[in-house]
């Protein structure tokens, strides 16, 4: 996985640098974001899951550096508290199981916007993201019995994450409305995890070959301009 992390770092450096072509801007904005995550974990062997709904929120800083024709270019940095995890789809009995995993995450995003500088803009964000697992908690029904799982995959129960550091790629798109009291952004975003929170050990049959996060989120951000 080290090669993927190197690619993420190069993307975080090269994407903003490639935008240095047009009219210089100096617009720094700061604000807050919040929304919901719909998370699943890509397990191998596979585990049937429902979408796990949870909260995400944090602070956002954005710097607009250039305008190139109708495109506005900049970078965006966030510090977010993000709840991930998974909820298993158990069809054979009344048991229920889910796990909440609380992360502190930092996306490094290239920000491209299209439209008038005043009014409504369409934008896209893309770049690498790193995160650190703060804590996790299992939730299961009172009559829980892991031995009743029909596919025999039960070694995730009671097993906490081996790797707390998480990294991957994130991209999103949405609309920004600029007003006299600040800027309001509505965005849909997808995160593709490239790291596994369980150690991959093919020699151990009681383990996963893959255990990476996949998150679809919807978020609302409020930004106010510090400098223009």
UniProtKB/TrEMBL annotation:
Identify the residues that the record assigns to the Outer membrane protein beta-barrel domain, covering every copy.
Answer: 19-197
Alphabetical list of InterPro entries matching this protein: Beta-barrel_OMP_2
Keywords assigned by UniProt, alphabetized = Signal
Query: What Pfam family does this protein match (any one)?
Result: OMP_b-brl_2
Signal sequence region? 1-19
Q: Which domain of life is it from?
A: Bacteria
For this entry, the protein name equals: Outer membrane protein beta-barrel domain-containing protein
Q: Where does this protein come from, organism-wise?
A: Bacteroides sedimenti
């Amino acid at each position: 996985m080290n090669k993927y992390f190197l690619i993420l770092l190069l993307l975080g450096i090269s994407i903003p640098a490639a935008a240095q072509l047009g009219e210089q801007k100096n617009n720094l904005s700061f604000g807050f974001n919040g929304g919901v995550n719909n998370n699943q974990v890509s397990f191998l062997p596979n585990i049937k899951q429902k979408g796990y709904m949870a909260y995400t929120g944090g602070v956002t800083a954005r710097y607009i550096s250039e305008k190139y024709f109708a495109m506005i270019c900049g970078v965006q940095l966030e510090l977010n508290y993000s709840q991930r995890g998974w909820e298993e789809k158990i069809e054979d009995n009344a048991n229920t199981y889910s796990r909440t995993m609380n992360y502190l995450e930092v996306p490094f995003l290239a920000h491209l916007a299209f439209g008038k500088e005043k009014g409504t803009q369409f934008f896209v964000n893309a770049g690498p993201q790193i995160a650190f697992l703060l804590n996790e908690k299992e939730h299961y029904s009172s009559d829980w019995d892991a031995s009743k799982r029909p596919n025999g995959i039960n070694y995730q129960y009671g097993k906490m994450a081996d790797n707390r550091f998480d990294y991957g790629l994130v991209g999103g798109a949405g609309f920004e409305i600029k007003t006299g009291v600040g800027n309001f952004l509505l965005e849909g975003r997808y995160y593709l995890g490239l790291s596994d929170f369980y150690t991959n050990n093919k020699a151990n049959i009681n383990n996963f070959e893959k255990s990476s996060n996949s998150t679809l989120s919807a978020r609302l951000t409020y930004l106010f301009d510090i400098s223009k």
